[in-house]
Structure formats: C-alpha cells, structure tokens
Amino acid sequence: MSSRHVIKKVWARFFEYLLQFDQPISWVIFLVVTIDLAYLLKSPESVENYLDEYLQNNPKQCEEVENIILHHNELSVMPGNIHRFTNIRILDISNNGLTILPDIFQYCQLSNLILKNNRLRNDTLPKEFTECSSLKELNLSGNDIKYFPDQILNFPNLKFLYLGGNNMENISNSIWRLKHLQVLSLGGNNISDVPLSVGQLKNLQALVLCDNNIELLPANIANLHNLRSLLLHKNKLKTLPPEIIALRNLSELSLRENPLIVRFVSDIQHQPASLLELSGRALKLYNIEVQPGDIPTTLLGYLNSAHRCVNSNCKGVFFDNRIEHVKFVDFCGKYRIPLLQYLCSSKCATIPADDVIRPHRTYLMKKVLLG
C-alpha cells in the first residue's frame, strides 16, 4: 500500500473517531498539496523538467496540487507545462525576470496570482485575460507597467490589487467595475489625477496612493465608508477635501512630505464674477421665485446648480466663481489638518482663528503620520 493511501486511511479512521462524539465539529483540516521551488535560482528549463517529472510520477496527485511557489528563480518566461496543474489556486512567480505573461486563466481558475518584481510591460501582458471569478488577489507591483492595464477589469471578484512601483501614470476611469476591492495599492507611481470612480469602491478598506504626483483628491472619497487606511505621503497635496471628516472608520492617515499649507494665501488674484453669476446670486439671496417658463430652461438649470457658501455667518451662494479657503480640522486632539473649502467671496475668508472643525470623537483617527 502506498504512503498516500496510508495517510488517507489514517485520516478516515480519525474522522470516524470524532463522529463517535455527539458534539458538532467546529473545525476542518485540509491537506493542501504544494510544489515549492522558491529561492533555487532555477532556469525555465529546469523548472519545466521538474514539473514534467512530477506529472509523470504523480499523475493523479497533480490534480490535488493547489499551490505552486516559484519566487526568486530565473524565469524569464513562465514554464510551459504549468497549465497542466488545472486545480492550482495560488501561483507565486515573484522576483524573477519574467518578461511576458500568458493568459494562465484560460486553464486555471486561480485565487491568488503574485507577479511582483518582474519585467512585465503593458505590451507583454495578454490583450485580454479570460474572465476569472475566483481571483481574489493580483500583485503586479515592481514591474514596468506605464498605464493602468484595463485587462484587470475582467476579474469581477478581485479583493486585493497591488500595482505599486510601476511608474504608472493613470488610474482607469472604469475601476468602479472592481466592486469588491478591499485593498488598492498604487504607491510609487507617477499618478497625478485620482478619478471620481475611485469613490465608487464602497468596499475599499485601504487606499495606498503614496509617492505619486497627486495635487488634489476628489470630494467623493467621502463615499468610502469602509476605508480604514489612507496613505498619501510623498505627494503634492496642499489641502484635503473637507468631506474626509465623514470617513468614520478611517484610523490611519499618512500625510508626510506633502506641501500642506499652514495658512491661507490671501493675495491670490481672483477673477470678478460674471454678470450671469451676479444675477443668479441676487435671485437666490433675495429668494426671488422663478417658475418654469419665466426664463429659458438652461438658465433655470443654472439657478438650480447654486452652491451654498460654507461660512455659517454668510447667506450667500456661488455658481462658478468661488474663493478657495483653508480651514483646519483637529485629528487625534493634536494635529490640525488643512481642508479645502469654497466660499462665495473673499470677505467670507475672514473666519475667526478659533473657528475650527472638530469631528465627533468617534471620527478621530488613531494614527496621523505627518513626519
């Protein structure tokens, strides 16, 4: 009798023993078969030969292999016979010299694909990945990807996406399609704009945007109600959107090495308001009612787009012509973070120094990293 059958017989006897007790079994033991060739500096040929021998010597057991670990080798290409292990769930080929990635999902429904620290480029990725609903983690950090690979959007249940250290210049406007994302790591790139679609990732718990060229965050980041960690250090941020104080679960905010301003620069030249804006403000300020049909539909829509001045002592509104103002918010009872607000005129910028936003204590962050 082979050792494999002996092991199965032992486990069968063990479970028969457990079933003698009239108690629920609250745990399950899984035997996961792993092929681990990490840190061996093997060439693609030697890895492929090893896998061939494994397939020949263990024709039935190869179907039980769930993990293949190949990190820290010398694989410029993926072993050609790896697709024969059709039941693998975790494939780690990080820290190799991988220059081209085949569509492994055509054969294997992976849950984790780790490809960090290779030499992959946008043009060496498949033009399209086979849709894979089982994939939960994809790590492409430390490669040479210059723009967001939209092929990733074919993984609807992705929870962890790592694209840091790629000198990538953009975030896809369609990233909202990855509705189950919990971690989005994009640090160490050349990203300057954060699209509004990031604010639609309602399940996001960690957003890593450090070491980029970001100057402004979208206000709808306040929609990320499950966000716990927001890493923004080493960017070009001067202010933060005031909506950030609505993130009740945010416990870590990293802001070091940003040109966050400490006082409002009052000598900025502002363009005077247009006649259209002044007229609209007067109608809103004096509550002059305008009914459909009194004015063109376009002007009626314009009037409905008015924004209330955030100064509590002002009843004014604005449309397109606004004044940027910085207000400070206390975090952790110690740090004062500059938040950007919009006022209707420069007169409203003279807010008393003690007029500081103080979020409720349940909003206070556990960690604010400024230095």
UniProtKB/TrEMBL annotation:
The keyword Repeat applies. InterPro entries: Leu-rich_rpt, Leu-rich_rpt_typical-subtyp, LRR_dom_sf, LRR_domain-containing. It comes from the Eukaryota. PROSITE patterns: LRR. Transmembrane segments: none annotated. The gene is LOC115874885. It comes from Sitophilus oryzae. This is Leucine-rich repeat-containing protein 58. The keyword Repeat applies. Keywords: Leucine-rich repeat, Repeat. PANTHER family: PTHR48051, RAS SUPPRESSOR PROTEIN 1. GO terms for cellular component: cytoplasm.
